[in-house]
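Why does this matter for the project? Reviewers at the last site visit asked to see concrete outputs rather than summary tables. In response, this paragraph embeds two records directly. Each consists of the residue sequence and, immediately after it, the corresponding structure tokens. Nothing has been edited or filtered.
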Amino acid sequence: MASAPLVSIIIPCFNYGKFLSDALDSALAQTYSNWECIVVNDGSTDNSEVIGRKYENSDSRFKYIYQENAGHSAARNTALKASKGKYIQFLDADDMLENEKLNLQVALMEENTAIDLVYSDILGFLDKDPTRKLTPANFFTQPLISGKGEALIANLIPTNFFLPGCVMMRRIIYEKVGTMKASYGFEDWEYFFRIAFEGFSFYHDPREGVRLLSRTHGNNTTHKGMEMIKSKIVVRKEIIKVTNNYLKENKLNLSQDFIQKLQKEHKKLLIADQAVSSLYAKRYFNGIKFLLLDTYYSGKPFHALSNGLRWTYYGLKKAFG
């Protein structure tokens, strides 16, 4: 590279002061040096400010911003607006990056101008494990694909297939798509869906050295099933609105068969999550209504019924101990 482009590392933080140093140290450990790291403290009541100020005072590449609590996506948006980099790297305050992440992926994107967004694999570790043993993390069921258009959009329908910290993207994406929506959990899924609908190209980078190191602990939501289902319902409704708006313009020249499939899949998955949420919350009338709709739209009645019974059991177990 003739000159090293600036990378903006975006870190929102809410009461993750006990993890924040690890995230910031992973920025310092990068073999690529031309970066800025913007930490947005989203109204934390712990020692997040002490940690953020410490790093800002020790290295001018760190920038610390405080805001009143407004949610994860609002903190990301604040950092995005303050960023100056040609490339944007997301990172949560409780996670870390392997030390070749910036170096290898900047080189990849500088050499391949058709790639707009690159995402890496994930290694997970347990916070309570003193050895921090790293294992491949399988948070998602979809294939890890590269490309754009129909194949990419279809892969995003069930849910996201990478975490925000996996992603490095060109600034032009932010300039075209804008910021994330109000924080309701899964806001990154809706954001990447919009990016896909704008015709940007995604690339899966499976190399060692660029992976996200994802921490599992008692405060993160990766494994809180019912909370995530409720968030998915809210976000899927938003994604359906986004989908309908894009389909009116159809700038990507999507086929009519694909458009019909897309709308049907969204409806089917929304109904399935509504059935699960209602049954778990013991709203049995709504739950049975959505369950019957799920058996019809999914074409898999036995799967729908067994899933409904499983979440009914979890709800009763929680209620009666």
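We now turn to the second protein, recorded in exactly the same manner.
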Amino acid sequence: MHSIRILRKYPSTYSAAHNYKWSIHLPRLQNILQLYKKVFTSIPTLPLSLSSCRQDNFTSLLDILSNISKSLRGLHLLQEKEFQDSSIRAHLDDRNNNFETDLSSFIDSALSRTHRRITLDRVFIDHPTQPQLLTNPQNIDDAVINHFQNFVPIKSSPPMSIETLPDRWSSAYRPMDDVPPSIYDSLMNPPTLDEWLSTVSSTPNGKAS
């Protein structure tokens, strides 16, 4: 259509080469019209030769090709919309099925999470006396598995007190020195009448409390 648009603007540039190119594209256009004939109210009639279009400076042919292009573009957009709708429905069906059969996949899908993998091509073991640089894939796998299995020991029972925790954790859970312990004394006391009235009066009207 670009060539026809140029001929419409500069009809004097027409040559036999244009007609030859048209003879190549014409069968393809006719096949497209037959394939998508339901899109058109009536199948457009295309000229067998471009020479017959010189009478109106290719205006009619350009209009025909423009209408064909608009109709096919509209069909493409409609089919794309239908495909998107069907994809969304299929995705929702899969998510609903996962809710029944695979809860972890359902959670990942609901949170739009994707599984990621990190590939390690070398691991450096910072040992005080025997540092190592591992490059063999099997040795790397073994070292990584051993690290994550043993670096944080798993205990079958919770600690009995804060003092039994490692230093970095015991300091995090120990009460802060600048906060007096007495602030927790009334924590479990039932609310007073004034506190009840203050809470009720601050709730929105017409809402369950």
